[in-house]
Amino acid sequence: MELFEHQPDPHANLLPYDGTVNYYGKILSAEEATNFFEKLMQNGAWKNDEVMMFGKHIVTSRKIAWYADAEMDYTYSQIKKTATVWLPELLELKNKVEELTGENFNSCLLNLYHDGSEGLGYHSDSEGDITKNSAIASLSLGAARKFVFKHKTTKERLEFILENGSLLLMKGETQRHWLHSLPPSKKIHSPRINLTFRSRNPTN
């Protein structure tokens, strides 16, 4: 299912049950999206992602950068990361996303996929330090990529294409009941930056 055949309704729920996902379409012009993409590529505090998988420490080719209102740790897959202060361009995007969605965010995890060979397997953003049932806003810059939801119980799948400059909002019990993934694709030869704005509980 492509989200760009018709003008999207940001109030429409894309999920059939057990959660809420709203799609806002392109919230940035092509020129704006390219400008933000280039600034983040140049100025982002990019590091190769690290995960623990089957007891092994793995360093991925995909890169991440983690920002927040204040210093706070972010732990997933048993790897602890520490946030850095907001970049001006990230604050500008954060304010825009908050204005459009009516949500508030105190942190942002950026993922850099160099091409279609890099993706992300099924998971839910349900780490203990994420505020329960809080919204997660996903802003896409760069290459259009397929984004897939799979229900944890029924295994129902929903597929969407997220374009350059588009915004997707996941909220309510979505993370409790649905997994999501970014499948690899041999047809994609250009990079994508994904910004996921979140609300996290500060750690001591």
TrEMBL record:
GO biological process: DNA alkylation repair
Species for this entry: Kaistella treverensis
Cofactor(s) needed by this chain: Fe(2+)
Entry protein name: Alkylated DNA repair dioxygenase AlkB
A GO term for molecular function: metal ion binding
Domain (Fe2OG dioxygenase) ranges: 104-201
Pfam family, one: 2OG-FeII_Oxy_2
PANTHER family in alphabetical order: ALPHA-KETOGLUTARATE-DEPENDENT DIOXYGENASE ALKB HOMOLOG 3
Keywords, ordered alphabetically: Dioxygenase, DNA damage, DNA repair, Iron, Magnesium, Metal-binding, Oxidoreductase
InterPro entries tied to this protein: AlkB-like, AlkB-like_sf, ALKBH3, Oxoglu/Fe-dep_dioxygenase_dom
This protein's record includes keyword Nucleotide-binding: no
